[in-house]
Amino acid sequence: MAATTPNLSIPTELKRRIIFTLAMLAVYRIGVAVPTPGVDGSAVMQFFQNQSSGLFGLFNTFTGGALERFSVFALGIMPYISASIIFQLLQASIPYFEQLKKEGQSGQKKLTQYTRYATVLLSIVQGYAMATWLGSSNSEGRPLVTTPWFGPLPFELVTIMTLTAGACFIMWLGEQITERGVGNGASLIIFAGIAAAIPSGAMSMWHMVMKGDMNFLLALVIIAGMVLSVAAIVFIETGQRRIQVQYSQRGQGKQAMQAPSSHLPLKINFANVIPPIFASSLLMFPATIAQFTDAAWVMQLQQSFTPTGSLYNVIFISLVVFFCFFYTEIVFNPTDVADNLKKYGGFVPGVRAGKSTADYIKRVLDRLTVTGAIYLSLICIVPTLLVQELGLPFYFSGTSLLILVGVALDTSQQIQSHMLTAKYDGVMKGMKVRSRRVQY
């Protein structure tokens, strides 16, 4: 028995992947502290502290605090994520990209290459908007830019090159983590940025309680609300609607095999955190476009697009609902699932195989998508409104909480998968497979 007992310690390959992932995240956090040339860091931080409740606070959360420091990573991973989501949507609407998706590994390489090009393009556009805005802004009469020229090069050009290079480097870090580490690299980079702000937020709340600016009971209620929110997210994200599936019997008479039964799992929130991320990215466009024009109506639109405004929330909920259905249509095809079940002799009890099964699965999936859209809308909006009403000293959003919990669940599942694989290999090493060859 001792010889066949599997080794339950962490396998060497998993240790290597975890260490590599932590090292890459450490490099990312170091880069967040590297300032952009020609910028007054203290003035920029003071400016963003006064804007922490608006879109700047939301974008600063996604960049892990790099925006308020205006470091070389000020754009964060958002250009890469926006480009990835755009090409995922294009795969369902343009035949050329749909054909690339069906070509396997070679097609995936081309899509990855196009995504990188789009990331560079988006980084240049956003970098130009940020550089233009930074050069024309000030904090209490103090200019944010200290060096308008670097020799023959203007500050705007240097900033565009710096921010684009930083966004491309973050994209490379994310790809390396996905390939050689544990978990999804882009998601872990956002996770690291959001998690890094938790200690400072907790200390700010503690100081408010000690100074009497916040009631101790209110602080406990806020903490309890966060814990309950995390529990609700875990419950929904791991929840499934299982459709029973049975398979036809094989054989005749006494040799007939009992019909095996299985189930088709459908997640309650099938689109995961994709809809709120993409909706937030789209709603950040007015702030970017406003840097290109001085039109009064554009500036007024920018001011009304704050996470606590009614117009923002109405449009945000509409976009979340739209992308929940749109993304679910892309990644899950009920017709293909029904055809595969029919091909292998499977059927849903009480439902005719073929089109009826596809319609039944789609009806169940639509109901789940409605539930998921309501859940995402509430989780993303309610915490932001509460933060505004309670006057907390840090920015906290439901989207951030969704990313934290979702990425943690996904990464833990991948670690468990590595552990189970190592455990299976350990069992197989202690076993001897007897040959089935006939001996004469």
Explained architecture:
The two termini are 33 Å apart. It contains 18 helices and seven strands. With 440 residues, it is mainly alpha-helical. The protein has a three-stranded antiparallel beta sheet with strand order 6-5-7, with helices on both faces. A two-stranded antiparallel sheet has the order 1-2. The protein has a two-stranded antiparallel sheet with strand order 3-4. The protein folds into three domains: 233 residues, Preprotein translocase SecY subunit (Orthogonal Bundle), CATH 1.10.3370.10; 37 residues; 154 residues, no CATH class. Helix 7 runs antiparallel to helix 8.
Radius of gyration: 26 Å
Shape: globular
Number of domains: 3
CA distance, first residue to last residue: 33 Å
Proportion of residues in β-strands:
5-15%
Structure annotation, total helices = 18
The poorly predicted ranges are 1-7, 432-440
